[in-house]
Design brief:
Elements lengths: L10 E7 L2 H5 L7 E6 L21 H18 E11 L19 H11 L3 E9 L16 E8 L13 E2 L9 E5 L2 E3 L17 E2 L4 E3 L15 H11 L5 E4 L6 H8 L3 E6 L2 H15 L3 E5 L1
Parallel strand pairs: 1-12, 1-13, 2-3, 2-11, 4-10, 11-12
Antiparallel strand pairs: 3-5, 4-5, 6-9, 7-8
Helix pairs in contact: 2-3, 4-5, 5-6
Length: 297
C-alpha cells in the first residue's frame, strides 16, 4: 500500500485501552462511518488479558460475547454506516457441546447468522484467499487457505463507494455494449437497450469481485497474527469518505488505523492489551509522520 496522506487536514488516531463493550458505550452515537475489524479466534490463543474474547467454554458463548460488542458498534456507527468483519474458523480440540474433536466449528457462519438475527443486514460474504497460507501437517483434509470477511449494514441503503474499489477489466476495449434487453445476453442492437435507455460504455474497469487474493503478512514487531493492509484497504475505501472516522474495536497492532490515516480518514481503535496499544501508537506514528496525531488513552 503506497498511498500517502494527501493535501487534506491533519488526521487523528485515538486508541482507547480497555474493554471493547465498556469503551464503546462512551463513544458518541453515529460518530464512525465504518467499522473494519478482526476479532480473536475462538479457542486459539490466550493473550494474557482478563475478560478477553476467544477463551469461552463454547462457540455459542463466544458468539454471544462477540455480538455484544457489535451491539455497541451499531450505536456508534452512522445510520448509513457499514461493518466489515474478518473472522476465522477453528477445529474442535476437545469435545464441547455439539462440537466433536476434529470438527470444523463453523464460527464464521454462526456469527453471521447471529448478527442477522440481531438486526444487521448481512450483505456479503467475501473470501480472503491466501496464496501462501500457514503450512499444516494434516493428512486427512486440505490445508486451510481462506478466511471470511462479512459485510454488514444497519440499513438496506448505506454508504458504499463502489468506484473506489474497481478493478481492471479483462477486456477493457469492449465498449458500446448495451445491458439486458436480449434474452441471449448483452447486445449492440439499440432495440435491446434497457427501458431507461442506459448504455454500457466500458471504462476499462469492473466491480470488485468477492474473492480477494491477498498474501498474509506479519508486522515484525507483533507477536500475533495481523491482517495485511492490502486486505482491508478496499473496506476502508468503500465504506468511508475522506475525513470520515473508521472504527476498530479490536485494534491489535493498529493495521486499520494505519490504513485509515494513510487514506485521509480518522481512526478510533479499542485495545484491551496496553502493550498492543503502545505498539499501534508507534506503528501509526511512523507511517503517517507529522501528518497525523496519534493518542493513546
Amino acid at each position: 500500500m503506497n498511498k500517502q496522506l494527501g493535501a487534506y487536514s491533519k488526521k487523528d488516531a485515538t486508541i482507547y485501552v480497555g474493554d471493547a463493550v465498556e469503551t464503546l458505550k462512551t463513544l458518541d452515537a453515529g460518530s464512525a462511518r465504518t467499522c473494519v475489524t478482526s476479532p480473536p479466534y475462538w479457542g486459539l490463543r490466550d493473550y494474557g488479558q482478563e475478560a478477553q474474547l476467544g477463551l469461552e467454554d463454547s462457540p455459542e458463548a463466544f458468539i454471544e460475547n462477540l455480538c455484544l460488542v457489535f451491539d455497541e458498534v451499531w450505536r456508534v456507527l452512522a445510520d448509513d454506516g457499514t461493518l466489515w468483519v474478518n473472522i476465522g474458523d477453528s477445529y474442535g480440540k476437545t469435545a464441547r457441546g455439539y462440537v466433536k474433536v476434529k470438527d470444523l466449528v463453523g464460527i464464521p457462519w454462526m456469527f453471521a447468522f447471529a448478527m442477522r438475527a440481531r438486526g444487521w443486514y448481512l450483505r456479503q460474504d467475501i473470501i480472503w484467499a491466501k496464496p501462501n497460507p500457514m503450512p499444516e501437517s494434516v493428512t486427512d483434509r486440505c490445508t486451510k487457505s481462506h478466511e471470511y470477511i462479512f459485510l454488514f449494514s444497519k440499513q438496506p441503503i448505506y454508504y458504499y463507494d463502489h468506484k473506489a474499489t474497481k478493478e481492471p477489466a479483462i477486456y477493457p476495449d469492449a465498449s458500446g455494449q448495451r445491458f439486458g434487453g436480449s434474452k441471449y445476453g448483452d447486445s449492440n442492437d439499440i432495440k435491446h437497450a434497457t427501458k431507461s435507455g442506459n448504455v454500457y460504455e466500458s471504462s476499462g474497469t469492473k466491480n470488485k469481485r468477492s474473492v480477494w487474493t491477498v498474501p498474509p503478512a506479519r508486522y515484525k514487531e507483533a507477536h500475533f497474527a495481523v491482517y495485511p493492509p492490502a486486505l482491508i484497504l478496499p473496506c476502508v475505501l468503500a465504506g468511508s469518505a475522506i475525513g470520515d472516522t473508521v472504527l476498530d474495536p479490536f485494534s491489535g497492532s493498529g493495521t486499520t488505523g494505519e490504513v485509515a490515516l494513510l487514506n485521509d480518514r480518522n481512526y478510533v481503535g479499542i485495545e484491551l492489551n496496553p502493550d498492543y496499544a503502545a505498539l499501534s501508537e508507534k506503528r501509526i506514528s511512523v507511517a503517517v509522520g507529522m501528518l497525523g496525531n496519534v493518542t493513546v488513552r
